[in-house]
Amino acid sequence: MIELREKNVVRANIIQSDITSHLTAEEIQEIDTELSHVPYKSGAAIDALTIVQSKRGWISDESLRAIAHHLEMSAEDLEGVATFYNLIYRQPVGEKVILLCDSVSCWICGADTIKEKISAKLGIDYGETTHDNRYTLIPVPCLGACDRAPVMMVGDDLHRNIDDKIIDSVFGDLNEDNDSNESRLNSGVKNSSVKNSNSNSEEGQS
């Protein structure tokens, strides 16, 4: 009986070690720094997700389970946190995420027209990624610049008073012309939606 119990302990330690190995030493160190500022580990859930996403670009199933284990949470509870916030990505995104504000202020100032122009130029709709993996387009309720609407963020850059010149300036270095991109958009050749609740595994991702 004692021998069986010892084997179970060893097996559990191996499983825990395997789960933890999905986090790098740097990620663990940064998460532990955040843990020092909260009274209970689950209080650092958003910070931990953000830290790992900043390194990897998105949160895979393996990453989520590893973070949950480190925070002593269930994967289901952490999944609820991750899917509640639309800036935590549970599927791969492009090199730069385009956050286009669709609040009332931006809508009144022509956000729908801006969205159509960006979609035509890049060949993607909301929640989709360009075929070259450069951009992912996502709507957000507000970017805090209502007085300069319409606005969007591309990566870390906030663009205000968006018009055709700004769109051309930001996306004008694309190699493909508008007609081919619009054709691809209308043909239905699109990547998986970032908003899809079915997440992907890191395994098999290039």
Give a description of the structure.
- With 206 residues, the chain is an alpha+beta fold.
- It folds into two domains: 2-84, Orthogonal Bundle (Arc Repressor Mutant, subunit A), CATH 1.10.10; 96-187, Glutaredoxin (3-Layer(aba) Sandwich), CATH 3.40.30.
- The protein is built from nine helices and four strands; from the N terminus they run H-H-H-H-H-E-H-H-E-E-E-H-H.
- It has helices spanning 2-20, 25-35, 45-56, 61-70, 75-84, 104-108, 111-122, 164-171, 178-187, and strands spanning 96-101, 135-140, 152-154, 157-159.
- Strands 2-1-3-4 form a four-stranded mixed sheet, covered by helices on one side.
- The chain is elongated.
- The chain starts with a helix and ends in a 19-residue tail after the last helix.
- Mean pLDDT is 82; it is low at 7-17, 175-193 and 195-201.
Low-pLDDT runs of 5+ residues are 7-17, 175-193, 195-201
Task: Determine the number of helices (DSSP H or I, runs of at least 4 residues).
Answer: 9
Quick one: biggest sheet? 4 strands, mixed
Beta-sheet strand percentage?
5-15%
Our Rg estimate from Cα atoms comes to: 21 Å
Secondary-structure element string: HHHHHEHHEEEHH
Total count of strands: 4
CATH class of the largest domain: Alpha Beta
Second rung of CATH, namely the architecture of the largest domain:
3-Layer(aba) Sandwich
Mean pLDDT across all residues, rounded? 82
Kindly report how far apart the N and C termini lie.
Answer: 46 Å
What's the oligomerization state? single chain
Roughly what percent helix?
40-55%
Name the CATH superfamily assignment of the largest domain: Glutaredoxin
How many domain regions? Answer: 2
